[in-house]
Amino acid sequence: MGAGRQPFDAPTGDTATANRARGAIVVLPTTAAGQQGPVAALVSAAGWASGLRRLLGNVWIVTPDGVVSSDELRTRASAPTLAPASDGGWQHRAPVVAKTAVKDAREWLRAHRFRVEPAGPWEGYDIACVWQRHELFHRTGPRLASELGVPSVVFVPAPLVWQANEWGVHRPLWGRWIERAAEQGPLRAADVVACGSEAVAAEVRRIGSDEHRIVITPTGADPDLFSAPIDRDAVRHRLQLDGRFVVGWVGSFRKFHALEQAVDALAELDDATLLLVGDGPERVRVEQLARRRGVALVCTGTVAHDDIPSYLAAMDTALVLAVPGGTFHYSPLKLAEYLFAGLPVVAPRAGELPSRLHDGVDAVLVEPGDPHALAGALRRLRDDPDARTRLARGARAAAEQWSWDRSAAQVVAAAGAADRTAR
Known about the structure:
Layout: E1 22-27, H1 40-56, E2 59-63, E3 66-68, H2 70-77, H3 90-93, H4 96-113, E4 126-133, H5 140-148, E5 152-156, H6 160-166, H7 175-189, E6 192-195, H8 198-207, E7 214-216, H9 232-238, E8 245-251, H10 259-266, E9 272-278, H11 283-293, E10 296-299, H12 308-313, E11 317-319, H13 333-340, E12 345-348, H14 353-356, E13 364-366, H15 371-383, H16 385-398, H17 404-422
Parallel strand pairs: 1-2, 1-4, 4-5, 5-6, 6-7, 8-9, 8-11, 9-10, 11-12, 12-13
Antiparallel strand pairs: 2-3
């Protein structure tokens, strides 16, 4: 581990007392290199850390660059210097399968180099668990937990080989091997495997994790991020959105986000503007499509994650979209933040969303891949301010079930149970 500085999350005072302060260690092997912001993996890890800190009192986030704070991690997730990999050189000309093989080899090397020594700023604290985000080959978190004699938690937003297959990135000669070598081992090493959805949990079971180690922990939001008041009118004026019905979305512009559906839907609405917050590989294509369809569009580019609430305040309603017929296995970070912001949400009947949202109460559900149905839902919300108010009230009431605090409490309870069983 690099010689990082101690985060402001860490406490001061005498830790040698009989009643030791509690805490957790968050191990984050994920790198933001080659990505455009916002980098959801870093934002979610910061959210987990904040939830664990509120629950236990103390947390240390360990990265290959050293120990960082939650705030610093969120800053890294939206740093202006983030940029996609260059299109030049052999990477641009090489087939996807070759680039995937090279990335896997690099990840193996990164995992081999990343080690956290048991001696650290957490010495003298009662460590409830060591949490690690799942990445290929990485078992630094479970190894550290074993050396400290505490339970380990591995958070799995999705099994990576399976997710790549779902997105059309295949490993024809080594996929099964790398799933066993790079995923099965790290997952089996964990005392608790926290899965982002039931669909993810099913794949984790298939890979070989024991049922009794699995808990479902959907993506959450950080309540502290939404505690400050916001001048909605000032934000809208700055973005030149005065007098417009604003349909918003936040994310990293990937193909699976299906943003063309939003453009097609807004082409059917008058006096509406599409506000897209973030950046990513699909942004240029979406901007070009909006110009062709005559859709008013505001793209902010990457913004600091701490500023997300102000952009959400500028919206009248917010979208979650899904590719029709695809496997909607993830739990969208944007959805949790929409609910905390008290936004009327239009979301697809996909994955586990219909079981977690209540149509007409805290969201409006539409069939994925149907821009006409999406346009109809948006038109009704545009024309009915009272409906928007009711949905906003429902969203705020539902938000508690979408917080990182809830997920933190789940994994700490599961880790405690695993620890008692081991003893």
